[in-house]
């Protein structure tokens, strides 16, 4: 039986590895490919937002809508690149960069007070009032030496998050 | 008044509580003063999302796992080719003939019985029951079903309901050839639907449309009436509400467990040595599924009629349903997952997200107070 995985040649896999800075092994990429084909139900070569949402465990995470903006319509190479931040081989810098991108919704390289407020809103929903959210955020920003008007760049994020150990790893099932 | 009340609770009929099953506290509760880092660090949520993209228990339930190709090597290849010729060239035509004969016998008896014995309801019902069992035996024969039944054969008795795990429409046929169950099932299109509305309705089967809330209400009402009737056929429910690949069980709908009657669990396990009996209704029609079964060597399966269970004092219908699911899963060797099978057709309710948001919000507020 011709399995779907045999459709990828060594060249293809190496190319994908190149694209994700060798954060995944060849076996892992094969597994991801099988998963990709499974998610891409209509087999058109990319996974639509609708298809991502059909995974209930993904749909229930508070950040799913925000993430969808990043992952809607990914082809396989982009799919692997997106997930590379969650590899055990990814550097702290890569992981922080990923988090930064989630915050920086307009992609201008700066995270403003509003960007942070929006993410906080996604995370807390209706359980903290608008006013309270702003107060909380202003307070912790000031305590960390920033102000409400300062916008954070990637190096700030690295400084803030880099000291802690980020647990951002997902194991890929390899059979 | 009490009628109105019960009908509104029937709307809940198909909504089990996911919260009761999901593990809590996947995101640990840190302590100490709230710092900017704690607010900006969204890695736990991101990891959860990425984990679900890479692998999730829900999709695994509906993935058809083709049988391991045990006969696939160069020495056995000629034999395998011969097998293909035999299966398609000899077995398949014979099976088609057997099935056709079955249908001819069935229809030529069923139609006169149904039309002529209008006055003798009891007698007519009995004959119809036998005939439905007969045609199901023909179906099982048409895929050389090797079915082993374990445990006592169900008898007709009021106030009892049978529940089984669900892999394919053929579950129903396999069980029906032994006992004419009245079954609750999704209304299907095409020739299956035609059979449903003509013949199977005679055995007391109840059909509904998954997506219609109104239908569910009617079904719940019919259910109650049916279990009360003394000489109605025993009721069979597939509480998962959808076909699962026979490796997992998804959550049971609590409807069958709220009727206040004895629940008899039935476990069905297919052996995949020749063919995968899982019907992936999104990928293939029932006809293709049947053809696939009819061109394989045999369908091998085990059916266990298990110890009847009653709701314990103080037990909620959901807990009862879980207990029965445990019994079935253990017997058939299936893994349990905390998902509602209907998520195949709809999105999870925002409730689940809100719960996560609430726990995060509470932890933020609590830590804000701490110094």
Shape of chain A: globular
SSE order of chain A, as H and E?
HHHHHHHHHH
- The proportion of residues forming helix of chain B, as a percent range, comes to 40-55%
Do you know the CATH topology of the largest domain in chain A? Recoverin, domain 1
What is the residue-mean pLDDT of chain A, rounded to a whole number? 87
Region (Disordered) (chain B): 346-371
GO molecular function (chain B): O-acyltransferase activity
Subcellular location (chain B): Membrane
Pathway (chain B): Lipid metabolism
Brief overview, please?
Chain A has 175 residues and is an all-alpha fold. Chain A is built from 10 helices and no strands. Chain A has 2 domains: 82 residues, EF-hand (Recoverin, domain 1, Orthogonal Bundle), CATH 1.10.238.10; 79 residues, Recoverin, domain 1 (Orthogonal Bundle), CATH 1.10.238.
What do these coordinates show?
- Chain A: InterPro entries: EF-hand-dom_pair (IPR011992), EF_Hand_1_Ca_BS (IPR018247), EF_hand_dom (IPR002048).
- Chain A: This is EF-hand domain-containing protein.
- Chain A: Keywords: Calcium.
- Chain A: Pfam families: EF-hand_7.
- The complex is a heterodimer of chains A (175) and B (371).
- Chain A is mainly α.
- Chain A is built from ten helices and no strands.
- Chain A has two domains: 9-90, Recoverin, domain 1 (Orthogonal Bundle), CATH 1.10.238.10; 91-169, Recoverin, domain 1 (Orthogonal Bundle), CATH 1.10.238.10.
- Chain A is 55% helix and 0% strand.
- In chain A, helix 7 (92-103) packs across helix 10 and helix 8 (113-124) packs across helix 9 (130-143).
- Residues 1-5 of chain A have low confidence and may be disordered.
- Chain B has 371 residues and is of the alpha/beta class.
- Chain B has a domain at 144-344.
- In chain B, the strands form two sheets. Chain B has a seven-stranded mixed β-sheet, with helices on both faces.
- In chain B, helix 5 runs antiparallel to helix 6 and helix 6 (121-142) crosses helix 7.
- The longest helix of chain B has 40 residues, at 77-116.
- Chain B is globular, with a radius of gyration of 24 Å.
- Residues 1-27 of chain B have low confidence and may be disordered.
- The interface between A and B is large, with 57 and 46 residues.
């Amino acid at each position: 039986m011709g399995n779907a995985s045999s459709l990828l040649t060594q060249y293809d896999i190496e190319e994908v590895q190149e694209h994700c800075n060798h954060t995944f092994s060849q076996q892992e990429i094969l597994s991801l490919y099988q998963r990709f084909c499974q998610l891409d139900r209509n087999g058109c070569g990319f996974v639509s937002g609708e298809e991502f949402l059909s995974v209930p465990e993904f749909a229930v995470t508070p950040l799913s809508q925000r993430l969808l903006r990043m992952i809607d319509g990914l082809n396989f190479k982009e799919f692997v690149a997106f997930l590379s931040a969650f590899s055990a081989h990814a550097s702290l810098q890569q992981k922080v960069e990923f988090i930064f991108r989630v915050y920086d919704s307009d992609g201008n390289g700066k995270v403003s007070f509003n960007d942070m407020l929006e993410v906080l809103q996604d995370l807390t929903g209706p359980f903290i009032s608008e006013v309270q959210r702003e107060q909380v955020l202003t307070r912790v920003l000031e305590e960390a030496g920033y102000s409400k008007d300062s916008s954070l760049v990637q190096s700030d994020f690295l400084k803030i998050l880099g000291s802690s150990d980020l647990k951002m790893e997902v194991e890929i099932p390899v059979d | 008044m009490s009628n109105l009340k019960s009908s509104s609770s029937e709307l809940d009929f198909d909504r089990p509580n996911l919260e009761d099953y999901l593990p809590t506290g996947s995101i640990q509760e840190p302590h100490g003063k709230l710092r900017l880092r704690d607010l900006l660090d969204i890695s736990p949520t991101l990891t959860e999302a990425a984990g679900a993209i890479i692998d999730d228990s829900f999709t695994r339930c509906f993935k058809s796992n083709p049988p391991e190709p045990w006969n696939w090597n160069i020495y056995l290849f000629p034999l395998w080719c011969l097998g293909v010729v035999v299966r398609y060239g000899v077995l398949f035509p014979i099976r088609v003939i057997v099935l056709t004969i079955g249908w001819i016998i069935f229809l030529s008896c069923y139609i006169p019985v149904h039309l002529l014995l209008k006055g003798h309801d009891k007698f007519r019902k009995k004959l119809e029951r036998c005939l439905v069992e007969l045609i199901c035996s023909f179906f099982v024969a048409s895929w050389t079903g090797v079915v082993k039944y374990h445990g006592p054969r169900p008898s007709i008795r009021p106030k009892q309901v049978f529940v089984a795990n669900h892999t394919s429409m053929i579950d129903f046929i396999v069980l029906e050839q032994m006992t004419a169950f009245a079954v609750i099932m999704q209304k299907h299109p095409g020739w299956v639907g035609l059979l449903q509305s003509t013949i199977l309705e005679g055995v007391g089967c109840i059909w509904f449309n998954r997506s219609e809330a109104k239908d569910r209400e009617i079904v719940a009402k019919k259910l109650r009436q049916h279990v009360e009737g003394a000489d109605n056929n025993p009721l069979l429910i597939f509480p998962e509400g959808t076909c699962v690949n026979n490796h997992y069980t998804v959550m049971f709908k609590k409807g069958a467990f709220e009727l206040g009657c004895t629940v008899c669990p039935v476990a069905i396990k297919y052996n995949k040595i020749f063919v995968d009996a899982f019907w992936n209704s999104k990928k293939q029609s029932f006809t293709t599924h049947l053809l696939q079964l009819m061109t394989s060597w045999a369908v091998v399966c085990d059916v266990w009629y298990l110890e009847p269970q009653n709701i314990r004092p103080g037990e909620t219908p959901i807990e009862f349903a879980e207990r029965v699911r445990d019994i079935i899963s253990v017997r058939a060797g299936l893994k349990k997952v905390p998902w509602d099978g209907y998520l195949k057709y709809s999105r999870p309710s925002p409730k689940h997200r809100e719960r996560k948001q609430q726990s995060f919000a509470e932890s933020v507020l609590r830590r804000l107070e701490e110094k």
